[in-house]
Known about the structure:
The chain is mainly beta. The chain has four helices and 50 strands. InterPro entries: DUF285, DUF7619, Ig-like_fold, Liste_lipo_26, Secre_tail.
Amino acid sequence: MKRNHLTLFFLFLTSFIYAQEPFVTVWQATAPSYQINIPIVNEAGNNYTVDFGDGTVLTNQTGPCSHVFESIGGEELHTVTISGTFGRIDFSTMPASAVKLYYIQQWGDVQWTSMEHAFFSCYQLIITATDTPDLSQVTSMEGMFHGASNLNSDPEFPLNLNNWDVSNVTNMKDLFREAPIGETSLDNWDVSNVTNMEAMFADVTNFNGNLNSWDVSSVTNMKQMFYNTQMFNQPLDNWDVSNVTDMSFMFNKNDVFNQPLNSWDVSSVTNMEQMFGGIESVSSHFNQPLDNWDVSSVVNMKGMFANAVVFNQSLDSWNVSSVTDMSYMFYRAYDYNQPLNSWDVSSVTNMRYMFNDAHVFNQPLNDWDVSSVTDMRYMFTDANNFDQPLNNWDVSSVITMERMFTGADVFNGEVANWDVSNVVNMGYMFGGAELFNQPVGDWDVSNVTDINSIFANTNNFNQPLNNWDVSNVIDMNSAFNGALSFNQDLSDWDFSGVQANFVYFVSGTNLSTVNYDALLLRFAEQEIENQLLISYYLSYCDSVVRNYLINDLGWNISEDEQSDDCETEANPINGYVFFDEDNNGCTNSDVPAANVLIKATNGNFNYITTIDTDGYYEMDTFVAGTYEIEVIANNYFTVSPETATVTFTGTGDTEELNFCITANELVEDLNITILPVTDARPGFEAEYQLVIENLGIQSIPIVTVSFEYNDAMQSFVSAVPAASSNSGNVLTFTLADFQPFESRTIDIIMQTFTPPTVNGDDVLNFTATVTPNQNDYTPEDNTFEFEQIVVNSYDPNDKRVVQGSEIYPEQTDEYLDYIIRFQNTGTASAINIRVKDVLSEEVDWNTFRPISSSHEYRLEITDGNQVEFIFENINLPFEGEDEAGSNGFIAYKIKPVAGLEVGDIIHGNEVNIYFDYNLPIITNSVTTEIVSLMGVNDYALTGSIVLYPNPANDVLHLKSENNVAPEMVAIYNLQGRELMSFNQNMENMNISGLSAGVYLITVKTSQGSAQYKLIKE
């Protein structure tokens, strides 16, 4: 009997289960996996069955399940039926499956426990079900249809949600976000328990349903509720919003909403940020009265009416005493012009952009207590009609006033008594405020760091500012640019902190010549360096100071011009320097002392230039003071006068000083140098220049020059002047009537062979020799050996040291040769080029000697190590117009300082190359290290090993003493390549196979090794 009762019970239970209405969905299983995942949330009591419609049925499921459909050649739709006990589905946990859910055909009898994120991102979903879900246990519908962008797209199955029972729901945040529910009615919904409606309809661009009957009395959060609902414009005046605390962004990006809201009780609201408009949103056309609103609890009104382009309602009655942020509040509220002077803004700390672009606003604000405000940047920018006094404002807490009145065309309100002592940024503060001309000279700007464009295009402004303490300002670019009336003395300003370029600092002002000169003098007095100053429509008289800024302090100054009314000029010193070769007194027919340096010193700085090929020199950058002038000549010359003293007490004086050079001993001294004008590249032509100098005291009738190259790697193309002979791999040139102080060049073009004969990193060897050298004062510089590394590409603006990255101790008393190459890679010809080099402390500037250049130039050396080569009116074509002609170079010699040892490094610093008024091109730097050929001497062999004669011709003798036995002698060129070695008959070594030149010798003995330098004649 008990068995029968049990059987009947199970039959009844089974019948009940199968009588339940299931949850029916339609899916598309897509390639390649054809798998779907059903994100049932695992909750206590779950026990459900899923029928996938293809014969697969899963029972006793408690959480997410999945299934792979068998593909039969297409991506078919599959009906999936779920029955049993479960209460929640959440597609936010399986976004990849969300796109595969196409239809809900039946809600069934499922008793849902939550709809939070139920169909999140199911953007294919359409609801065809005619029944309604059981939501009686649901409290959260947050994000239920968020991103279900296809939800109401099928006209055959219009979305019908109005009969849903949502009476127990408390959270509707993001419910329909980005789900275009269109004309769906929701007016029957009982939302009386809902507390959170944040972003409920956000981004539902086609919704315009009537919701005025809703009981929203429990709602506390309406943030973004109608955000970007581009069609919503329904009455909401029946709503009880008395519990709402957050209405920020509520109608943001809704440009059609314009319904009465004045009856709302907003007394609990604390946040109204961007409520009717948006800083970055479309224009809002809301224009309804709000004067009944109690906003006493509101803290944040940032951007509240931003972009509310037609809003113009009275708000003067508002109690805004709790508000701390009013930034952007009326930003682009183009029509707003209502009284606000009674507002208590004492709690506000941020007013940036508050009336920015409020084009018609012009109401008194002088009664405002702004003592707590720290940020007023852009506050009245482009408030074109605003012109009210603000002298009562306490701005002592403000930190930034950047662009505060920029473009406020008619503003000329009183601000003289403002305490701006805490302001850091005043950039563009009055820029474009055309009528502003209030006294601000007593402002304490000692903390300001930025006054970029502060009065730019402030056409009326002309007030004294000499009391301003601008010592902390780092950016003054364009401070007065275009201030047409400004003409004040700024020579008391402290510019020492400026880091950015001045550029248009006073350009386009009405600055007088006197005030402009005083400003330039102030820059010079404070030793402000390396600035760019463009001064349209300004004139100067003090060319000395201006030139000092340009030539000594590295300034680029342009667009100003020397006044026609100047009463004074610079104090130039000029004259001629000749060599009295015939010892009968210097005349204009004597030899010009070309390329010799002449120096002026006044204790504060020195100024050096060169004497040109006519013997003429000129220096014109002298302010009042006493100067010592001297010619820098070799010690076998005597200069008369030895020094000359010149004193300038004012400006406009010219001093002519002539010098005469005579010889104090008989000296023959020829010198030759090889300069690589271009790099050697496989398959391309390479340019070289031989520089021959007569540094002696006598004219030489015939000078012979030879140039030896490796004809296995290069072939000769051409030379200017032409070679007198071309034999094998040696070119010979004959130069006639070579005068003292004369320098000549020979330009040679070689063709470098193509790979595989010549490749990158191969080394080309060259030797140049000048004769006669029988009695030469320095025979070691009559031969020049040069190794050039073949490259595949190169930088056209560079610096090279010809001797390379290493020299030997024996070479530290010889010249290093530097060549600086430049190319105009721009798009227009360069009118002027300035090459600025800084000599390092490892070289002796007293030995500096320029030897060659591609174009005529003017040399200026200041402070001993600041070297500038100035190419005026060079008109260097740009690369695209004339590739070959777009290149140039400058070369100079200089010796290392005395006392350098093995391991010391000689630095060739970076070079700044200025093409007109552009920023400089900065080259590479180079280094030369002093190295030992075979290591340091093992012991003192001085007196124990003697090599003679030196210079030698064909035979070199070695004599040893003190029981020192020589074991081996090796001879190297200056690049360290071994050329000869001897381990026997070292007393008489045949060196006839060596070319004339300088060599290094290492002698290895029984007691150590030592090095020597040999001159081969």
